[in-house]
Amino acid sequence: MGGTTGLWGAAEAYERYMGRWSRAVAPLFLDWLAPRTGLDWMDLGCGTGVLSEAVARRCAPARLVGLDSAPAFLAEAAARVPQGAFLQGDATDTGQPGAAFDLAVSGLVLNFLPDKPKALAEMARLVRPGGTVALYVWDYAGQMQIMRHFFDAARAIDPDAARFDDGLNAPICRPAPLAAAFAAAGLAAVETTALDIPAAFADFDEYWTPFLGGTGSAPKYCAGLDEATRAAIREALRARLPTGPEGEILLAVRAWGVKGRRPG
Question: Which keywords does this Swiss-Prot/TrEMBL entry list (predicted)?
Fold first, then answer.
């Protein structure tokens, strides 16, 4: 993920925090794209290879290239998807030839890229005329309830939590801004969709522990707190989360998908 190595540096911590939900959303995204087999794919900001793995399993690609800035993530992706080629680089300047792919895709990355228009222009450049550019991002401000509950509780205790809240800091993660950004990149036939999955936790500890891993916006914020503030947020969360009779917690998780076609 271009420019985000410091935030997303530990593959194992990311897997505990968001990886399992990422794996559940990726197939829904591919179902929506409904691509034919035998195509050339580029996965920008491939991370640990969650989306690349789903492409390899479901879409029978002729070629699959993943690009990310984090070496630890690339190593995980290469181990997970041996049929892919995983390269270190910047999503805004991949160094790949233009019009070389049928699809340029990205999963849960766009809001972390410092120059979003340039990244989308690069995705459009990479695909052949008539090719597809598509991505998905978490609905941070709405139904990504794992994070929404955390930051709503944290901001009530510590206003500084707003600096880390992607619901505030990533306004592009909504259908209208996503569609507008794709149109500005010169893409046609732009569409958006909601990708919804449930997130079940056996108990509060299963929900809370991944926030202590230090990888991701909320865990990074949590790691910098003094113990008293962290404990206050933990107990506020325990009180507000919907909890079943056996301690189970069931939340909604939504990502927004967007796709467009390169004219020509």
Answer: Methyltransferase, Transferase
